[in-house]
Design the sequence.
């Protein structure tokens, strides 16, 4: 899922990419897609990992098990989702595009608490439903998005999002596997929230749970702080300030988080029209 232009790009190093769907022999692919074997593969994929490393690892495992080229997980924020992990940089950028636009399958899944399976963003109902996001996704090499809410009952804490580079309607076994991964992801998030106040152990890559969660909080705090500063600069409400932030980011081909950081560091100011 390689970006096809320079919009929404950054210079962060790209993660090692897993072998996607379509590699290896057909019997091997059929084996891992079987729900029973998929459950074993998920368990094996996260065995022995510290909680902080599990969200990223589950994104990678999902790409290995399903006909998708990327995956990401985001926490539901007040007005804007906060991306916490992704299988690779390309998937991360598509997640950021949705957050910046304030529109797309992920946000709809978070609002409704129900899966949103946009199997074809190139034409038809899905493309008409989110026209701007569909165009940006296509430019980033994504033609299908499957968003699964994370949480329990009526409480949605975030979404698990899968990205495909071709239109494809998930089969029942594939959707079952996606739900399995989402279920384990929810458990991992619950574990992280319980350990938030504790001193994190060093996980994969040398990053502890506490510092990892602090990084997420910092991203969300910067957005809220920027919204407050825009409200003061323009004398407007929070919703309009968030809309102005998103519009500025979209016009520049950047993410809302990037623009928020410029606002709070006084490198960008919003002036009255």
Sequence:
């Amino acid at each position: 899922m390689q970006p096809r232009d320079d919009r929404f790009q950054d210079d962060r190093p790209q993660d090692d990419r897993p072998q996607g769907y379509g590699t290896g022999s057909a019997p091997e692919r059929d084996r891992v897609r079987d729900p029973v074997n998929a459950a074993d593969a998920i368990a094996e994929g996260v065995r022995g990992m510290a909680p902080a490393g599990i969200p990223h690892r589950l994104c990678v495992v999902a790409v290995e098990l399903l006909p998708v080229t990327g995956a990401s997980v985001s926490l539901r924020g007040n007005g804007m989702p906060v991306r916490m992990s992704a299988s690779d940089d390309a998937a991360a950028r598509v997640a950021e595009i949705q957050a910046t636009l304030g529109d797309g399958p992920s946000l709809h899944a978070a609002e409704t608490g129900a899966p949103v399976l946009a199997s074809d963003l190139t034409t038809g109902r899905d493309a008409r439903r989110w026209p701007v996001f569909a165009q940006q996704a296509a430019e980033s090499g994504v033609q299908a998005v499957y968003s699964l809410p994370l949480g329990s009952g009526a409480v949605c804490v975030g979404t698990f999002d899968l990205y495909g580079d071709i239109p494809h309607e998930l089969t029942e076994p594939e959707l079952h596997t996606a739900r399995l991964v989402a279920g384990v992801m929810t458990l991992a998030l619950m574990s992280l929230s319980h350990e938030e106040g504790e001193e994190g152990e060093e996980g994969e890559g040398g990053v502890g749970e506490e510092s990892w969660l602090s990084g997420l909080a910092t991203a969300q705090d910067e957005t809220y702080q920027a919204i407050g500063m825009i409200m003061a600069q323009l004398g407007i409400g929070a919703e309009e300030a968030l809309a102005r932030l998103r519009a500025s980011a979209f016009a520049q081909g950047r993410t809302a988080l990037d623009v928020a950081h410029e606002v709070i560091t006084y490198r960008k100011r919003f002036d009255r029209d």
Notes: The chain has eleven helices and five strands. Strands lie at 70-75, 82-86, 116-118, 144-152, 155-164. The domain at 26-194 is CATH 3.30.450.40 (Beta-Lactamase).
